[in-house]
Amino acid sequence: MNIGITGSIACGKSTVSDYLIAKGYTIIDADKLGHVALTSDDVKRKLAEKFGDEILENNEISREKVGKLVFGNDDNLKILNSIIHPKIKELILKLQEEHKDENLVFLDIALLYEANFVDLVEKVAVVYVDEDVQLERLMTRNSLPKEEAIKRIESQMSPREKAALGDFVINNSYSKEDTFQQIDEILEKLKRGDKQND
């Protein structure tokens, strides 16, 4: 069964993924696949056609230059996503196929809902934190001033909105131990579900 792990910025998806990896589960990291997608000749060609050859450095896509083009520019972001998301989806499907014999495979993906990747998973676990905790963590983690952190948070779906859509919610507002206990409970539910489906 493929399980999505999602959450808004600074909610702690990595904490959840790292714990699952330590327990021996396969995690497909969509962010890493995004970097892989940028090395694809097809993606490079399409991006260079749209944004010009100046986004290339030594025939590779400069993530920094692309970042500057799309930050705060919705049109450019839509173009980037329309080119890169199909490639990421293709890479995810390939990895899911490779791991299809495993009972549970997790897809760590921030934009599960925003990028319409929900069809790639059977269940969704949303990592949630209270908005004030999210703001504080983002400011600390990325050394951002409050206004900049708020802008980044507001560019995504809120933790509350995502939590309402998920099958499971992991409240990561408290201690790591508390978070890990919630993950273990979800794993038990998923395993029981597997047995019921056999």
TrEMBL record:
Keywords: ATP-binding, Coenzyme A biosynthesis, Cytoplasm, Kinase, Nucleotide-binding, Transferase. ATP binds at residues 10-15. The keyword DNA-binding does not apply. It is found in: Cytoplasm. One of its GO terms (molecular function) is ATP binding. Its EC number is 2.7.1.24. Pathway: Cofactor biosynthesis; coenzyme A biosynthesis; CoA from (R)-pantothenate: step 5/5. SUPFAM superfamilies: P-loop containing nucleoside triphosphate hydrolases (SSF52540). One of its GO terms (biological process) is coenzyme A biosynthetic process. Belongs to the CoaE family. Catalyzes the phosphorylation of the 3'-hydroxyl group of dephosphocoenzyme A to form coenzyme A. This is Dephospho-CoA kinase. It comes from Gemella haemolysans ATCC 10379. The lineage of its organism: Bacteria, Bacillati, Bacillota, Bacilli, Bacillales.
